[in-house]
């Protein structure tokens, strides 16, 4: 069942340098219980997309067109009985409706930097209990019990004592666990993890990823990961969306993206992933830098950085092409056109993938 | 309150007391070094002057005078006035003036801080709107225009042209008479606190934990009340100290303008007639006030910011 469906989303920001078209026609699907990842360089629009889902875009951001449909399932509660399922377009909701119905309760978010995402002057316990107290009007005792359970669920030992602690008394890994506990406090259906491990120690990263995976299974959550780390993607995602300059350029299952990538940008990303096996001592980078989206771009925005670019890339924006033999794998590149010259992925990458397949 | 907190408090109070003794020492020395004498009367002969010096112990070496002063001070005796009103104990001169000066000062601080915080929060919430611009303009004015200019302006408008308030301080109706001085004094406080609150609030509102609080599904009012204000006010407390010093010096001039029978005017008068004991006692009182307020601000800081509380506690 589709729980979240983004169609043709356009977001722009008004700045002193003019209008920046940060998101330019994003389509995204999230099914219940699944994990999708959005991968891309900094500034590609990953975080903006998820902030739009949460309705917490910065003040100068405007959703110009498109829809973000969230689907309620039929639900049963002891007090009200059956709650009829329905689909709402988050874009059309008012700020109050968003805050009352969606944020926290349906879609929750784990932020990037646990060092700054907790309120320094409020106890951990209060921060975890707060959404339950105010959103669900739960009484203090119940909320306290549930907060304790949540802290234990996210693997915090000595939870009772920790409830009274302030954020600065805990380590980064612990704080990220708290942030996850806060996200879970209102029993959301969708969890958005915005680079949840970027700010953490490598040894803690794997633990946090395991934890999120574990909780996802227990609570039947749908998860959206935002990351630039393909290592993280490989560990957690079912589907991958590769984003570049506000557009999704390639989407597919994890195997399709890792073992059969089609878009030159995805090739670049995979090649840039360091590993121990490569004989080459030079670290691969994608040449150039992301485009300035305040300017109108003709054709494919990736063309100037793409050594395989065709003439048409400079004139027309490529549509999404289906990859033959798959109904999940889609690529936005003119190279996929039947008349395009057949271009193979770089040899080094081929080796790399072959090695990955061997392992 | 834990034992460590009490220990910290004890240490701070001890330091405050030592500081005060050092202040008295410096004040005493400076007054002795000042040229001039309290008995500056041409009619007095040298013999009479010598008699007066002997009577007040001024013929003794400075160091003996100092210890005598400290000894008497500990017993609550601040000496007698030489010039302002002869042979009156200084305490008698000061005591009735304390409530007037402090009343006006405290009222100005409270009024100024509250209005300043409210204005600052409002301006931050409506950043880059007309209201914010007006508030900013107001605070620039408030910081740069001295309080006596505001006082004169207020007097002109509300004392002379629309005579609602008395121009000279009326001791029969203290509350009515205090309104203009309080407003004039609080003007600078409002501006300073407001400006600072605004910038801190803008900082806090763009922080990650406010985004998280919003992502939790809390409504905006709650986010501001429970998450933003407290964090924004912590730095504001630090500037209260300097603001209070400003206020004390400002009040001396204001008391002259409004002819308020307060400590400031007493101090100014004491200085002009070389009345050492009065100058010393009033300056000392201001010092106690300042050191005490700094102590309170430090303690307040610990209460409002858990990071500091724990750091010194455990």
Question: In a nutshell, what does this entry contain?
Answer:
The complex is a heterodimer of chains A (359) and B (314). By secondary structure, chain A is an alpha/beta fold. Chain A has helices at 46-54, 95-102, 124-135, 140-153, 159-163, 172-184, 202-219, 230-236, 254-259, 264-271, 347-358; strands spanning 2-15, 18-31, 35-39, 61-71, 75-77, 81-83, 87-89, 107-110, 190-194, 222-227, 239-244, 247-253, 321-322, 330-331.
Descriptive account of the structure:
The complex is a heterodimer of chains A (359) and B (314). In chain A, the strands form three sheets. Chain A has an eight-stranded mixed beta sheet, with helices on both faces. In chain A, strands 2-1-4-7 form a four-stranded antiparallel beta sheet, with helices on one face. A two-stranded antiparallel ribbon of chain A has the order 5-6. Chain A has helices at 46-54, 95-102, 124-135, 140-153, 159-163, 172-184, 202-219, 230-236, 254-259, 264-271, 347-358; strands spanning 2-15, 18-31, 35-39, 61-71, 75-77, 81-83, 87-89, 107-110, 190-194, 222-227, 239-244, 247-253, 321-322, 330-331. Chain A is 31% helix and 24% strand. Chain A is globular, with a radius of gyration of 22 Å. The longest helix of chain B is centred in the C-terminal third of the chain and has 38 residues, at 220-257. Chain B is flat, with a radius of gyration of 24 Å. Chain B contains 13 helices and no strands. The two termini of chain B are 12 Å apart. The A-B interface holds A 54, 56, 96, 99-100, 102-105, 108-109, 111-113, 116-123, 130-131, 134-135, 166, 168-169, 179, 182-183, 185-186 and B 207-209, 211-220, 222, 226-227, 230-231, 234, 304-307, 310.
